[in-house]
Amino acid sequence: MSEQKRSAEEQIADEADRKARNPTAAFGGPSRSRIPPKSRTPEGRATSARGRAEDQKMRAARLKELEEMAADLLATARKLLPGQDRHNALQEIARFRARIIGLQRQDLRSAHRKQKSKKS
Fold first, then answer.
1. Within 13 Å of residue 81, how many CA atoms lie on the same side as its CB?
2. How far is CA 17 from the centre of its chain?
3. Integer Cα distance of 29 and 31 in angstroms
4. Is residue 36 assigned to a domain?
């Protein structure tokens, strides 16, 4: 009886592993629809381009807000008395600003690549 129990547990574990490796299998597999995605039609490409441009503008606005927040945090941290708390706060703000700069550079690189590919 313990062997039956063990084999059932193994089957459940195997099923869980299979679903973890292929999450779409849990829902009947990938979609088999023959309707092409919108991005493959001319109208869909235009809509996608507008959507991407709007997304980039929103992302730039969010990054600008984050820069402003970092500046406010820096001003507040500078008002703290010298000591470990001030030092830690300034280090955290520096990390935060570095992440913001990294995101901005990532956006600039992708924009540069797009311009470069259009020229080719």
1. 1
2. 26
3. 7
4. no
Which residues form the domain of 80? 43-120
CB–CB of 77/94 below 8 Å?
no
Amino acid at 50: R
Within a domain: residue 60?
yes
Say which residue the tokens 């574990």 belong to.
13
- Report yes or no on 101 lying in a domain: yes
Q: How many CB atoms lie within 10 A of CB 89?
A: 16
Q: How many beta carbons lie within 10 A of that of residue 70, not counting itself? A: 18
The total number of structural domains that make up the chain: 1
Q: What is the rounded average pLDDT of the residues 5-13?
A: 69
In this prediction the pTM is 0.53
Among 3-17, 89-103, 106-120, name the most confident range.
89-103
- The string of DSSP codes covering 16-77 is HHHHHH-GGGGGTSS----SPPGGGSHHHHHHHHHHHHHHHHHHHHHHHHHHHHHHHHHHHH
- Amino acid sitting at position 83: G
Q: Determine the distance from the C-alpha atom of residue 107 to the mean position of all C-alpha atoms in its chain, rounded to a whole number.
A: 13
Q: Does residue 14 sit within a domain?
A: no
